[in-house]
Amino acid sequence: MKTLQDTLAAHRSIRQFRPQPVAQEVIEEVCQQAIAGGSSSGNLNTCSIVLTRDVERKQRLYELHAQQDMVLQAPLVMTFCADMSRTRDWLALRDARDNFANFIGWHVALVDAIIVAQNVCLGFEARGLGICYMGTTLHAMADIAEFLELPQACLPVTSLVVGHPDESPPARDRLPLQAFLHRERYERPNAQQLAQLYADREQKGWERYMAMPRLNELAQAHGITSLAQFYTSPVKYDPDRFAQDSAALHSTLARAKFLP
User: CA geometry: angle at 72 spanning 113 and 239, to 5°?
Assistant: First the structure.
């Protein structure tokens, strides 16, 4: 098994998998260690994980996750849920005051779930398995919750595809460390510093996307000439779509009693 340092250095998002299944004992071991080794606010453990391996059920998740092929190809899909339902049921069982059906409760459960999800990623990657996060979970939160029959005050926050890698992609670049670290207070970069921080990303990211014929064609069709324009275009993260999905997410949180 890899060390933590080696696991972090070898991280890749894997989107192509061999058909070999992930053993149940490996799944349980990774999840047990991820939960035990992750911080939890008040030790409330407000996370639940739904495993999907059934081919027909994965087909529905494939549709909900914007028809990403990796959902069908990976032997395992894991949906991580911010789960305050179980805690609230326990409070009711013990005649305690109800709580956590509020925005703070949402944030507590959200952070708990993300901590467990990242620990699970490290656990699988340390064992040589591949993973990829699916941001589409947020865009289809209500439909995924309905499909997985989640109770009120329990919502999906992120998903992973997991399996034995069938590709070895190069490492993705990250912004320089100075973009992340601030001394004592937030140090907002000026225009020149900002350009320096993003210079390498703008070149490598643009080259990567433009090397894909379909994206190159779409970029030309939309008059996109830079990575920044690409990220906020209909080709990538469409602001109009994000506005619609943000409104839908707000309504979902309200129906789950996480908002007034």
Answer: 60
Give 187's Cβ-side CA count (13 Å radius). 9
Q: Identify the burial level of 75 via C-beta atoms within 10 angstroms of its C-beta, where 0-12 means exposed, 13-18 middle and 19 or more buried.
A: middle
* DSSP-derived 3-state class of residue 161: strand
Structure tokens at 11: 């991280």
Placement of tokens 């997991």 in the chain? 162
47: three-class secondary structure by DSSP: strand
Distance CA 227, CA 235 (A): 11
Question: What whole-number percentage of the chain has pLDDT above 70?
Answer: 100
Q: What would the pLDDT profile of 241-254 be if each residue is shown by its tens digit?
A: 999 999 999 999 99
Q: In this predicted model, what pLDDT tens digit does every residue of 157-168 receive, in sequence order?
A: 999 999 999 999
**Residue 141, number of CB atoms within 10 A of its CB:** 22
| C-beta atoms surrounding 146 within 10 Å | 11
CA distance 124 to 213: 33
Q: What is the pLDDT of residue 69?
A: 96
* Predicted structure pTM score: 0.95
